[in-house]
Amino acid sequence: MSGALDYLQDLDRSVFDGANQQSYALKAQKGLSEALIRRISSDKKEPEWMLAHRLKSLAAFLKMPLPKFGVDLSDIDFESLIYYAAPSEMGGYATKWEDVPDDIKKTFERLGIPEAERKVLAGTGAQYDSLNAYHKLKEEWEAKGVLFEDMDIALQKYPDLVKKYFMKCVPLHDHKFAALHGAVWSGGTFLYIPEGVKVTAPLQAYFRMNAKSMGQFEHTLIVVESGGEAHYIEGCSAPKYGSTSLHAGCVEIFVKPSAKFRYSSVENWSQDTYNLNTKRAIVEENAIMEWVGGNLGSGRTMLYPCSILKGRGARADHLGVAFANAGQIQDTGAKVMHLAPDTSSTVLSKSISKNGGVNVYRGLLHVAKGATGAKSQIRCDALILDALSKNDTFPTMRIQEDDVSIGHEASVGRISEEQLFYLQSRGISEEAALAMIVNGFIEPIVKALPLEYAVEMNRLIEMEMERAIA
After folding, report:
1. Domain membership flag for residue 12
2. Is the dihedral of CA 177, 182, 185, 191 positive or negative?
C-alpha cells in the first residue's frame, strides 16, 4: 500500500456512496410473504424442488428467534425491507459488456471491474440488486470444463448438480438468517472446477446493492473437484441512504481430496447495512482451504467464515482484517472444525478501531474425538487508535482429544507517542508516520489480498486506511 495517501488525493469517495436512479425499486414489494416467495420462484422459472425449499425456509424463518449473541439486531424492521428488486431493463444478464444498460455499466466502470477483467481475470460476474447484470468466463477455461455462471442460470442449466450441493453445507435450519436466505436468495455465483483442473488466473464477482431499504441475498456455490485449484474474489458495496439495508448472503464451498481453493473478499457495505453473511467450506482429505477477508463499511457485521476439516490431512488458513469507525460494530472471527486426524489450521485476525468504533473477535475451535494429531494456531491482534474505541475477544475452544497441538495469542495495542516521536524525529510527517504504523500492522493480511488483480478492492482498502489515519 505504498503511496496510498498520494493516490487517494485524486479519488472521489462518491464512487461507492453514489446511487443510480431506482425506478424499478419504487414498484417493488416490501415485506415478506408466501406470495413473494412464489413470485421469485416463478420469475426465475425454477424447478418445483427449489420452490418447496424456499417455502420450507420461509416457515423456518418465521419460527426462529434472532441470535442471542453478537450485535443487537432488534432494530431490523423486516416488513420495511425490499427482498426482491429485479431491474426491469436488464432482462437477464449480459455476456458482452456493451450490452449492459448504461447506468449500471457506469457504476461498475467507476469501480474498475471491466479494467480488471481485461487485464488478468479468468472470469467476471457483476450483480446489481437482485439480478446479475453481467457474467463472463474466458474461453480458455470453458474449454477445460470450468463452469462459472450466475446462480439463477446455473439452476436452469445444471439443476441436478445444483440440487446435489445447494444448502448442504449451510442448511436452512442453521440459524434465522440462513432460513431467510433459503427463502429469498437471488443471483450469486456458481463455480465448478473439474477434477485436476488448475485455474491459474482469479475469477471475480462483484455485488452492488443500489436500492434504498434493499436486502441482498446472493448465493455463492463453489465445488472444486479432486486435484483442482482456483482463486475466487468477491467485492461488495452499497450507497448510503440513512435507512436500514440487509445483506444476508451465503457462501458454500466444497473442496474435494487434494484440491486447493482460495476465497478472497472485501465487504464494504454502507453504514446503513446489517452485514449478516454466512460462509462455510467442507474440506476433504489432504485438501487446502484459504480464506482472506476484509470487513470495512457496514454499520453492523456478524461474519465468521467456517472450515469443516472432514478428511485426514485437511488444512484451513483464515486471514482477516476488520476496520471499525464511528458508529460501526464489527463482530467477526473464524470457526474451524477438526473432524479428522492430522488436520491443521491457522487463524490470523487483525482489527483497527477509531472514533468509538467497536471490534469483536468471536472464534470457535472444535477438535472432535478421534481427530488425533490436530494442530491449530490462532492469533488475534487489535490496534486501537483513540480512547473512545473498543476491542473484545471471545474465543471458544472445544477440545475432545488429547493428542493435539493448540495455541492462542491475543494482543491489543495503541499507537504510542514514542513511536510517533521516533519516526517524526527522522523527518517523517505525523500523517506519514501514522500511515507507516497502520500499514505495518495490517501487512500480513494486505499481502495476501489480491490487490494486483482487483482494482476495486485495492481502492477500498486504501480508502479505509486513509480514514483510519485522518
Report:
1. yes
2. positive
